[in-house]
C-alpha cells in the first residue's frame, strides 16, 4: 500500500467516525408522539383531558417535596394517518425553582415512577444543563420531562386519538406572558429542598 493509499484509508475512516458522531449528536430530544393504531378507540375531548390529567397527576404525585406548577392549555395536532384524527398534548410548567444540582434527583424520581407503572423509557438525554426523559405508556400515550434554559422545567403528556376538529377544548384563555411577549414559564417559587 502506497503512502497516499494509507492516507486515503485513514481519511475515509475518520470521515466515517465523524459521521457517526454527528448522527449521535443529532439524536432528537423532541417529545415522542403517541402511537396510533386503527384499533384505537376514538376519545372525546373530555376523555382525552381526563387521560392527560391522570398521566400528569400520576407523575407529580411522586415528586416529594411537591413542586408548584402552572398548567398549559391542551394543544391539538392533526395526524396524517388515520385520517381525521389528532393528538392532544398538555404541559405543566414547574414554577418551583429547581437547582441544577437537583436535576438528577427530579429526573430519577420521575423515571422510577414511570418504570413502576410499566411505562417504557424511550429516550434519556443526560445533558447536565438540559436533561430530559421520554416514556411511553402501554396504551401508546407519551410522557416527557424536559429541562430548558434557564432552568425552566416542563412535564408533558400526549394522548390520541381524538377527532380532528377546530378548538375541541374551546378558545384558549389568556396565558401569563413575560414583558417581551414570551410565555411566562420561568420558575419563581423558592423551595428549601429543590431550590438549593
Describe the structure concisely.
Residues 1-24 form the signal peptide. By secondary structure, the chain is α+β, with helices and mostly antiparallel strands.
Please tell me about this protein's structure:
By secondary structure, the protein is α+β, with helices and mostly antiparallel strands. It is built from 3 helices and 7 strands. Strands 1, 2, 3, 4, 5, 6 and 7 form a 7-stranded antiparallel sheet that branches. It is globular, with a radius of gyration of 21 Å. Mean pLDDT is 84; it is low at 1-30.
Short descriptors:
23% strand; signal; alpha+beta; 196 residues; seven-stranded antiparallel sheet; TBP-like
Low-confidence segments, given as residue ranges, are 1-30
The CATH top-level class label of the domain at 31-163: Alpha Beta
Average pLDDT taken over every residue: 84
Task: Work out the radius of gyration.
Answer: 21 Å
Strand content: 15-25%
Structural class: alpha+beta
What quaternary form is this?
Answer: single chain
CATH architecture call of the domain at 31-163:
2-Layer Sandwich
Number of strand elements:
7
Helix content: 25-40%
What is the H-and-E element order? HHEEEHEEEE
Describe the protein's topology:
Blueprint: H1 3-25, H2 45-60, E1 69-71, E2 75-78, E3 85-94, H3 103-116, E4 120-125, E5 132-136, E6 142-147, E7 153-163
Amino acid at each position: 500500500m502506497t503512502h497516499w493509499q494509507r492516507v486515503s484509508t485513514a481519511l475515509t475512516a475518520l470521515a466515517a467516525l465523524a459521521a457517526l458522531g454527528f448522527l449521535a449528536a443529532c439524536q432528537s430530544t423532541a417529545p415522542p408522539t403517541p402511537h396510533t393504531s386503527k384499533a384505537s378507540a376514538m376519545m372525546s375531548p373530555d376523555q382525552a383531558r381526563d387521560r392527560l390529567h391522570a398521566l400528569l397527576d400520576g407523575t407529580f404525585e411522586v415528586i416529594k417535596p411537591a413542586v408548584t406548577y402552572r398548567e398549559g392549555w391542551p394543544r391539538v395536532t392533526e395526524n396524517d394517518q388515520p385520517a381525521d384524527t389528532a393528538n392532544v398534548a398538555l404541559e405543566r410548567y414547574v414554577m418551583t425553582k429547581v437547582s441544577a444540582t437537583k436535576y438528577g434527583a427530579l429526573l430519577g424520581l420521575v423515571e422510577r415512577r414511570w418504570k413502576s407503572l410499566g411505562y417504557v423509557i424511550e429516550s434519556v438525554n443526560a445533558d447536565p444543563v438540559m436533561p430530559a426523559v421520554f416514556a411511553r405508556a402501554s396504551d401508546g400515550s407519551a410522557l416527557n420531562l424536559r429541562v430548558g434554559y434557564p432552568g425552566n422545567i416542563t412535564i408533558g403528556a400526549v394522548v390520541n386519538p381524538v377527532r380532528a376538529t377546530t378548538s375541541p377544548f374551546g378558545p384558549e384563555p389568556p396565558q401569563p406572558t413575560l414583558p417581551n411577549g414570551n410565555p411566562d414559564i420561568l420558575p419563581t417559587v423558592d423551595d428549601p429542598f429543590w431550590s438549593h
